[in-house]
Amino acid sequence: MSPRRTPAPPPGELRDSLPFPKAAKIELANVQQRANLRHATHTIRAKRAQVVGELDDWEALRTAGAQIKDRVLRNLDDYLEQLEASLTAAGATVHWARDAEEANRIVIDLVRATGQDEVVKVKSMATQEIELNEALERAGIAAWETDLAELIVQLGHDRPSHILVPAIHRNRSEVREIFLEEMGTYGEAAPPDLDDEPAHLAAASRSHLREKFLRAKVAVSGANFAVAETGTLVVVESEGNGRMCLTLPETLISVVGIEKIVPTVEDLEVYLQLLPRSSTGERMNPYTSMWTGTTPGDGPQDVHVVLLDNGRTTALADEVGRKALRCIRCSACLNICPVYERVGGHAYGSVYPGPIGAILTPQLRGLGSKVDRSLPFASSLCGACYDVCPVKIPIPELLVHLRHKVVQEKAAHHEVHAETAAMKATSWIFADSRRMEAALKLPSFGGKVLRGRLNHFGPLPYPASLWTTARDVPVPPSESFRDWWARERGGQR
């Protein structure tokens, strides 16, 4: 029997992480991680582009996916009541959780009621969001991650860095070292001669997890979709570990965000085309598991569904920001984002990294911390994330919307920042053409003095250093556009 404990998580909550600019600077120095991320994201997005290109109606599917989600969000209260009724009629027990603390308490109480001290888990962003594993650990309950990438993260005492591939920042040599060092502490050890061939690493994980699958009496899952009409929950995955968790245990507890609803089973036709192509670059998921309550003699006989709010109704109240709740957690925006590709997921201080995390996390958690206030600025606004989003979330628009909220929040608290002062000074200059013309002569003068001596400035003194430590500042041209125009066009305006 393996020890009844899980690898201890890193101390501290994610919201206590460094703000994005500081965290990103640290992550940029990790050369191996940057190489791993570049290889992985380019591979996935190339596969996505190929399978998306096969569909003539891809844009119509994207529009349909967005419209179905918007209909749900406009009528969420009705659909939630319908879902509860359908789940109850199918033999499931429904629990409502306002926040992470309430959701964790419900799950812990349900596990304790079974007399068990361990659970097996299907990969779930919702349970990561509420830090369920840590809460279970404090309650003396071991939570075993069964997804291969999640297993790597857990055994490595690490944190996920990607929505779809949590261990994307690790290469296979690093995975081999983790398996050799850690597996034996928490179950069956890895073979001592284990190499870094992917097939051999996968075989070691299967052997390590099999004893856990066979003895587990309780499983915890999330859900990709919840069908209001029938009470059907849907999980899509690529390894079969989800199928093991959803069928073998006696008790199944599913933690589901309230935005995961789709109205009917027919609506799944849209999302089961959009999701696999956008996430793994596949035409369909290898495993699509659907279950509706309980069935006598088949599968778990004690089924619970915890419907999780945890900031979602707050996001719903924002007519612009609520579009982030369309998200189906495909991670296409991460794989295309030039910022994420270079800094990785840990810099975002959230289980939702990348462009979607930059708009979803501040809405779920609020703008109370420096981490959350920094996230809307973790983007170049290039727009690539919108182009690949399967449900047409206008991420750049939402980033600007949240940036405005951050500025309003600072103003409401009378916070004085160099950026605010600079903007006020610029506004004063732009308000008068004579001041504007005088201001433009200064860079030109500097350009004439420095021309031929420097190609660019180094970091400028504070507060300009906040911008220039990560950017080359070019030497101003020796002639402004206004001067050139006056010389070429004889002063015509």
Verbal overview:
Helix 3 (58-74) packs across helix 12 (268-279), helix 9 (172-186) packs parallel to helix 10 and helix 16 runs parallel beside helix 19. Strands 1-10-7-4-2-3 form a six-stranded parallel sheet, with helices on both faces. It has 493 residues and is α/β, with parallel strands linked by helices. It is globular. It folds into two domains: 14-312, NagB/RpiA/CoA transferase-like (Rossmann fold, 3-Layer(aba) Sandwich), CATH 3.40.50; 418-489, no CATH class. Helix content is 51%, strand content 11%. The chain has 23 helices and twelve strands. The chain has helices at residues 20-28, 31-52, 58-74, 76-89, 100-114, 125-129, 132-138, 148-155, 172-186, 198-215, 241-247, 268-279, 312-316, 332-336, 338-343, 354-365, 370-374, 384-388, 395-412, 418-430, 433-450, 465-468, 481-489, and strands spanning 93-97, 118-121, 142-145, 218-221, 225-227, 232-237, 251-257, 261-262, 287-292, 302-308, 456-457, 473-474.
Lateral arrangement of strands in the main beta sheet: 1-10-7-4-2-3
What is the correct CATH architecture of the largest domain?
Answer: 3-Layer(aba) Sandwich
What is the general shape?
globular
Which residue ranges are poorly predicted, with pLDDT under 50 across at least 5 consecutive positions?
8-13
Give the number of domains: 2
Domain 4Fe-4S ferredoxin-type: 324-393
InterPro entries: 4Fe4S_Fe-S-bd, 4Fe4S_Fe_S_CS, FTHF_cligase-like_sf, Helical_ferredxn, LUD_dom, LutB/LldF, LutB_C, NagB/RpiA_transferase-like
Organism: Arsenicicoccus piscis
Pfam families: Fer4_8, LUD_dom, LutB_C
